[in-house]
């Protein structure tokens, strides 16, 4: 029986592999759920076989030792990742990261395997927010395992594009990794455009006095920061890929493509830096406008209080003018029998004159004080 040349990448020794101590997935797996979306074998860039299960795929790989295999999984569970780890000798730390998910973008090499984590982003026009996804990739000399933890990105278009160009897919897992990085960065462009449009809308809302402007500024700032967390590590990832032994054999043209991806990422990062600075400026302007509006409201309230006080003072002054005549009228209206003025012939004119003079004196007094 001939020796299987694919044996270094497929673990089929008689000795049972050591069990991997891996964490349970964050969400419980459904019983019988198959997370394998697609598993295909390629020879010289053309698909020669498709498998529906991991075991079927491993069997096909044994039958086609010259083939390159591409596994696509969606939110795999512990058992599936353990099976893949045993078959391809994947590093337990990388497998643990894939099961737990929620990892930062990074690229790490574990002996013969590259492990890459990327954060995908999609702009939702309806809700005006950025939705983030996560994709992991394990690559060896003759296999690649892509793991998605969200609906985005849809790797079907990546697979279709590469299958339409067998000369690219013939180069194996490094080419798939390069094209995966390319579509992730390309998908960032509409996200940046959407965020820039939101920043323009925020400026309009701030100067129009929109009540929810501050809340929207903080929400948009968090989205920009989260997007930068996905974007900024790409430069380090690309620098590592450029010198990795898996990419040195791809040729000058592919390295130029990697450089183009890096330039695109740098340009996007500069635009997000500008957006973040603009948001800081808009926040400061919004705070200044809110302070100005509060000052104007306080000035208006103070003016209204002064006017109310002026009116109350005038009312009090007129009440004071009428108080003394009213007191005289009340005094002579008590109708006592023994009042000297009741029998005086000039009593009535004297009372009227007394009321008039007292009222005039009170008027002049309040007038001199500015109350009237």
From TrEMBL:
Localization annotation: Cell membrane
Keyword Protein biosynthesis: no
Location (main, coarse): membrane
Pfam families to which the protein is assigned, alphabetical: CorA
GO molecular function, one term: magnesium ion transmembrane transporter activity
One cellular component term from this protein's GO annotations in UniProt: plasma membrane
Reactions catalysed according to its record: Mg(2+)(in) = Mg(2+)(out)
Assigned keywords, A-Z: Cell membrane, Ion transport, Magnesium, Membrane, Transmembrane, Transmembrane helix, Transport
Annotated region (Disordered), positions in chain: 1-33
Membrane topology type: Multi-pass membrane protein
TM spans (from-to): 315-334, 346-366
Record-stated family: Belongs to the CorA metal ion transporter (MIT) (TC 1.A.35) family.
Function recorded in the entry: Mediates influx of magnesium ions. Alternates between open and closed states. Activated by low cytoplasmic Mg(2+) levels. Inactive when cytoplasmic Mg(2+) levels are high.
Protein name: Magnesium and cobalt transport protein CorA
